[in-house]
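re the bet — no i am not wrong, look at it urself. input seq straight from the record:
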Amino acid sequence: MKNHNHSPQLPNNPLTRAVVQENREPITIGQFILPLIYALLAALLVWMALMLHEQREFRAEMEAQMGELTEIRSKIEGDVNRVARAAQVLGSILRARGGIDDPKAIRDVSQELLRENPSVRSFTLAPNNIVTLQIPEHGNEVLYGRDITQLPEQGDHAHEVMETGEPSLTGPYELVQGGAALIYRRPVFISTAEDDHFYWGQISTPISWDALLINAGAMNYIDNGQMAIRRVGNSGWMTGSPELFHHPDAVRQTINVLDSRFEIAMAPRVELSLTSAINPTMGVIMGLVAVFLFWHTWHRQKKNRSIHKSEKLLNEVMVHMRDIVLRVDANGIIELVNPAFADVTERPGQQIIGTPWLDLLVASDRDLVAARIEQIIGDKREKNNPEQYELSFSILGAEERVLPVRARITQALNHYKEHDGFIILLEDLTEQQRQEQADHLAAAVFEHTSDAIVFTNRQREILAVNPAFERLVGQSRQQLLHTRLEQPRPVDSARLQIRRALRDILIDGHWRGAIKSVLPDGSTRVLQWNIDAICNEQGRIVRFAA
């Protein structure tokens, strides 16, 4: 053990010096303040560490439960969406065949779809809303010949689907044939000689509620009282304990399937103790003590941390952006530039650092942009809040190539909220201008081509025509718009060909062929038709181009 020789001077600590001295000074309460603060801080730190550990375990368990709940939600949504696609396939077959022309073929396809979707109870086909065919038939005989719009509880939903012409999911309902199920209804429209959107009937697809929950892995939780599911809306359907939806720590998620929403709740497997409940109070006390001890260091480092963090974040964002980003100081000199500058302009970015950013602009734009920058700085002095401004001008690329850009300029402020330069984002508009030119060219082709072009909606109402079509039918654009497409009129012998064409369009999205037609002047000509279906994001046909 080493011995250390101390100097004869008395220690600087007043309490220690008082112990050493022969004439001891009286001990005051103030001398205990700093040691007491240190002891309190140590105790609070230990207590806080224990509580934070408990909270971390609680959060970890809650995150694990959230993951389980997310998996259950995804399986339920996936199963229902697969059933919807199966009903869509069956509807497409009925539309292509014009109805139930071959019941055996319909049964074979339906049986295959049932094997792929074990949660489906059956497929019910109801032309004119009358149940005519069910797959499978066993156990569903009670529904044959019944009007689906007159079924208890379900009739309103069937009537709504018929009126709107849109598929819909409802339920769960207690079925006539027993058991509870969601009901997915899909209207079927076929093409006839008189109407290309004729309401044929509906496909009703009961989805077993119990099978859906079992496949998703939710039934065990429900049986153990750990989970509950309810439908969002006025039906009031509930599976599981309703108290779970009032538990403050219950994990919840929303199940969005087609046009229906369900809410699912899972009880927490662990509970926070009393120590965790008082954690916020302990955090406040600890924070006050920490501020008292370290406020000088915090004050000195605050500005440096903020600047470092901002610069780091700015650099990370700049590196990954495809648009040009410039950091300009208060004198307009470029301090930072991201790699996108070299990609867009084909000029090295390092060469422009330390140069005025206005030198990047073409000569004709510099004075105007400089005046706008002075105005931006003046606006800042009046409003005292940084805002983003947008300008359009051109910059110079490699070999004096002119590049049109859109600039978003944000004023940077220093610690004292004074002007400290700009962050400038330059978006290359070259591709946008090329696209605009292509659009103008397409419009010019539409107007000046010798081929007749017409756009209609699903009801064959004319939305747009070109001059060639006006000349073909002998009517002006004003006369044709928002009227039903009747000219050129096919001859009677071409009716079968037209029905085949409509079928091909609904299935393949396009058709091409020659149709013998009668023009308004009475003459007969064979016209070459090219018809394409235009669909929306959901894949539904919204208009036609011919």
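see?? Confidence is low (pLDDT under 50) at residues 1-27. told u. also The radius of gyration is 38 Å. so pay up
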